């Protein structure tokens, strides 16, 4: 055997091996094979990551085209996956895996067929339909859907949701770092029904603590690579993952189906790594970590997501301090968390709630009879600031106080983003949560007035009696000054908690749909704190609440003019009484109840 013949044989073997081993796809605009050219039995190759960061080729046999299966005039290419996918089945995280025939891109693996099937049958979204998303990427109007907290959550009942059993998008679960059992219980159903995503427990990665783009962002996210969608990043992570279908050096298309299906978004886009691909006939999934930030997603549509390499996303930085207090009220342990949340009309409030609740419930000091003292500052780019405080304690309610705390803060954020005039530009959020190791509630038990007949200008002394939970009675003295010039007659002294005082004002956004952002912030800042006891001299003259303004003691003539001039979109709320003098006294308890006394002005 001559040397030339040996060289010829080796060259042929090398060429044959190269033909048998597909070349990994690179960024750029690949040739496209339209659906009309596909035939049953064609051999294709998909690229996806099973472990680590390098995608592997997976053989796919084309079964056919399922007409209109993904919507009107939206087809699905059916394929049977082989190779390593025969064992893992069509796993969560494979969404977006590009599929090629003879070097031509046909689409992205996006759907799985049936459950418990021994065949790895996948649905492939045609690439021509995915590329239509670029036509929608010219404008990004803010959405206006308000966040609503479902009644099931307020009642302490987890929300359930059913899954279709035939063909559905491959799962893209939301992974929350260090998720507690309580977090998954209370928020899992909410995320499933409202966001369309499954919430699962996961880990965290140090790379996401930086908001700086990775040095290699220009060459990142090649077709077949793992890509991460980031909702929360930092000391708290909420992420999800898909596979890159198409990268032309600027635009990146992923998934082949919707993630949250909200249209225009501004969401961090990061690289990812696969720790393991769990094989299962029921819920196969990739276990992944998000790594370095490389750009931002701008569109989340029915047939995929579109991202831009090098574009820095807008997020909201959150600083959360959790302080554990001893029996004397002194902090003995502080845990500080820093993370960033995406700015989105529909999801920001939900993400703020789950981040706060998961942090609280993950502490060793977390217990049923814990009271939470919360101070929150929300800074806006306009220079305005929400300055809020509350005390949340156990009560005769199925909702635990830690969840009440998260709902309370989520409600304030939701009202900001539900503003119908202007989208809020939130700069920074600062939260301080003190964990008090006992139930701090006190009910108004009674009141006593030194004298019930007074003159205008006179100061009166009121004694209020409160009964704490499993504690001795508390006596507190409050002084009220009768206004000069107050007409003689009968009045009422009202002692009440913050709920009663806030009731009418809290209804004004429902009566006026055109409150601007500044008015919304002012109204939220006017809310009374629930750790104060309020005492007021009231008279039977109406008070009007409109927008962020309180108009007390209105004459009937003015009220008639206002009633005649109001419109259906600009109503006002009227209370039958007006406080003519008001004082409050602060406690380290959640105050509940009310008491009324009679007063005569001579």
List keywords for this structure.
11 helices; alpha+beta; 6-stranded antiparallel barrel; 602 residues; Ubiquitin-like (UB roll)
Can you describe this structure in just a few lines?
By secondary structure, this protein is an alpha+beta fold.
Task: Describe the fold and architecture.
The chain folds into three domains: 25-313, no CATH class; 317-436, Ubiquitin-like (UB roll) (Roll), CATH 3.10.20; 441-601, no CATH class. It is 18% helix and 41% strand. It has eleven helices and 32 strands. A six-stranded antiparallel β-barrel has the order 1-2-3-6-5-4. Helix 6 runs antiparallel to helix 7 (401-417). The longest helix is centred in the first third of the chain and has 18 residues, at 3-20.
Structural class: alpha+beta
Backbone CA Rg: 31 Å
How many discrete structural domains?
A: 3
Shape: elongated
Major sheet size, sense and barrel closure:
6 strands, antiparallel, barrel
User: What's the rounded overall pLDDT mean?
Assistant: 87
User: How many extended strands?
Assistant: 32
Helix content: 10-25%
Largest sheet, order of strands side by side? 1-2-3-6-5-4
Describe the SSE topology.
Blueprint: H1 3-20, E1 43-48, E2 56-66, E3 76-81, H2 85-88, E4 97-101, E5 104-113, E6 121-126, H3 127-130, H4 151-154, E7 167-169, E8 174-177, H5 181-195, E9 199-202, E10 226-234, E11 238-247, E12 251-254, E13 263-278, E14 285-301, E15 304-309, E16 315-325, E17 331-342, H6 348-361, E18 371-380, E19 385-392, H7 401-417, E20 426-436, E21 441-449, E22 453-454, E23 459-468, E24 474-481, E25 489-496, H8 498-506, H9 508-511, H10 517-525, E26 532-539, E27 543-546, E28 549-551, H11 556-565, E29 573-575, E30 578-586, E31 590-592, E32 594-601
Parallel strand pairs: 8-9, 16-20, 21-31, 22-32
Antiparallel strand pairs: 1-2, 1-4, 2-3, 3-6, 4-5, 5-6, 5-7, 8-11, 10-11, 10-13, 10-17, 11-12, 12-15, 13-14, 14-15, 16-17, 18-19, 18-20, 21-23, 23-24, 25-26, 25-32, 26-30, 27-28, 27-29
Helix pairs in contact: 6-7
């Amino acid at each position: 055997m001559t040397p030339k013949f040996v060289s010829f044989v080796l060259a042929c073997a090398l060429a044959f091996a190269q033909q048998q081993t597909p070349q990994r796809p690179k960024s750029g605009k690949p040739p496209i094979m339209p659906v009309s050219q596909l035939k049953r039995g064609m051999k294709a190759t998909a690229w996806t990551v099973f472990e680590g960061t390098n995608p592997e080729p997976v053989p796919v046999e084309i079964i056919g085209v399922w007409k209109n299966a993904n919507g009107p005039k939206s087809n699905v290419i059916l394929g049977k996956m082989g190779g390593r996918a025969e064992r893992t089945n069509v796993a969560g995280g494979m969404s977006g895996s590009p599929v090629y025939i003879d070097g031509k891109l046909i689409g992205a693996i996006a759907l799985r067929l049936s459950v418990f099937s021994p065949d790895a049958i996948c649905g492939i979204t045609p690439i021509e339909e995915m590329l239509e998303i670029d036509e929608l990427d010219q404008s990004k109007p803010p959405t206006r859907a308000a966040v609503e907290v479902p009644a099931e959550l307020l009642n302490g009942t987890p929300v359930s949701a059913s899954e279709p059993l035939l063909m559905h998008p491959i799962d893209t679960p939301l992974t929350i770092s260090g998720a507690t059992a309580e977090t998954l219980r209370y928020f899992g159903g909410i995320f499933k029904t409202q966001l369309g995503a499954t919430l699962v427990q996961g880990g965290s990665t140090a790379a996401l603590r930086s908001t700086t783009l990775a040095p290699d962002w220009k060459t990142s996210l090649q077709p077949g690579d793992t890509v991460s969608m980031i909702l929360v990043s930092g000391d708290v992570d909420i992420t999800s993952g898909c596979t890159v279908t198409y990268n032309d050096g600027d635009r990146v298309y992923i998934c082949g189906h919707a993630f949250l299906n909200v249209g225009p978004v501004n969401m961090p886009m990061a690289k990812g790594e696969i720790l393991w691909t769990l094989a299962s006939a029921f819920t196969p999934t990739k276990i992944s970590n998000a790594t370095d930030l490389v750009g931002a997603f701008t569109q989340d549509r029915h047939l995929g997501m579109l991202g831009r390499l090098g574009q820095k996303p807008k997020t909201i930085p959150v600083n959360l301090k959790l302080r554990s207090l001893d029996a004397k009220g002194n902090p003995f342990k502080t845990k500080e968390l820093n993370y960033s949340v995406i700015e989105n009309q529909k999801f920001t409030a939900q993400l703020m709630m789950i981040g706060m609740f998961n942090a609280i419930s993950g502490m060793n000091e977390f217990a049923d009879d814990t009271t939470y003292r919360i101070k929150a500052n929300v800074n806006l780019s306009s220079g305005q600031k929400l300055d809020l405080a509350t005390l949340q304690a156990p009560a005769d309610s199925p909702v635990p106080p830690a969840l009440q705390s998260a709902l309370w803060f989520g409600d304030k954020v939701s009202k900001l983003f539900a503003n119908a005039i202007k989208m809020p530009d939130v700069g920074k959020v600062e939260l301080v949560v003190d964990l008090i190791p006992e139930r701090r509630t006190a009910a108004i038990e009674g009141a006593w007035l030194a004298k019930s007949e007074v003159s205008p200008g006179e100061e009166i002394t009121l004694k209020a009696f409160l009964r704490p939970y499993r504690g001795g009675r508390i006596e507190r003295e409050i002084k009220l000054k009768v206004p000069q010039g107050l007409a003689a007659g009968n009045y009422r002294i009202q002692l009440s908690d913050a709920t009663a005082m806030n009731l009418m004002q809290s209804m004004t956004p429902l009566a006026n749909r055109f409150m601007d952002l500044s008015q919304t912030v002012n109204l939220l800042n006017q809310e009374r704190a629930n750790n104060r006891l309020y005492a007021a001299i009231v008279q039977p003259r109406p008070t009007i609440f409109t927008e962020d303004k309180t108009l007390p003691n209105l004459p009937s003539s003015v009220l008639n003019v206002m009633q005649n001039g109001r419109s259906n979109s600009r109503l006002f709320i009227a209370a039958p009484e007006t406080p003519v003098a008001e004082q409050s006294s602060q406690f380290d308890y959640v105050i509940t109840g009310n008491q009324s006394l009679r007063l005569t002005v001579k």
